[in-house]
Amino acid sequence: MQQQRLLKVLVIGDLGVGKTSIIKRYVHQIFSQHYRATIGVDFALKILNWDHKTVVRLQLWDIAGQERYGNMTRVYYREAVGALVVFDMTRASTFQAVLKWKRDLDSKAVLKWKGDLDSKVALGNGRPIPAVLLGNKCDQLSTGLCSKLPKLENFTRDHGFVGWYETSAKDNTNIDAAIMCLVESIMAVE
Ligand code: GTP
Ligand code: MG
Fold it and tell me: What is the pTM of this model?
């Protein structure tokens, strides 16, 4: 008997870092240089044949970068089970914003274990949801600030990410690997 799992995954990070582009590359295998800012939130669905008995329906929530200044994230984050936190390797300010996004996430998106509804854990003492860090636009490495970035291993561990990847939506570098890493962590804790 096949079972289906619906996983709500958030894609967050500052304006223009490439969240929509990463999702379009992953779900539709397309890329455009044209920038059109996301308003509010967009959605995409990817079906994965996870193993011989499990189909994963990955629901990607593409949250607009400008939402960090809004007050809707609490609503958007509800019942999410994982997150991709994206920055732009060519813009240091977007890397500095990563911790703000992560803190926002950890304070609002808490993993609910089965049975939590009638325990105190549901009141906010639960575990943070798995999150993977993506340094996007790595195709522009030679022109960017990347060489100035500290090695991200320590950063990733210290701030509770389950992994990190240099990605390019343009060249299709590490997009699949980063998302697989996240889905594996989600499936491991669920
Ligand atoms: P908001 O919706 O405003 O939060 O932005 P976003 O994070 O969704 O960024 P979006 O995907 O719209 O990309 C912003 C710009 O960066 C676009 O012009 C993209 O073409 C470009 N871009 C995205 N990913 C890459 C990449 O990997 N490499 C390069 N060179 N450009 C990229
Ligand atoms: Mg967008």
Answer: 0.91
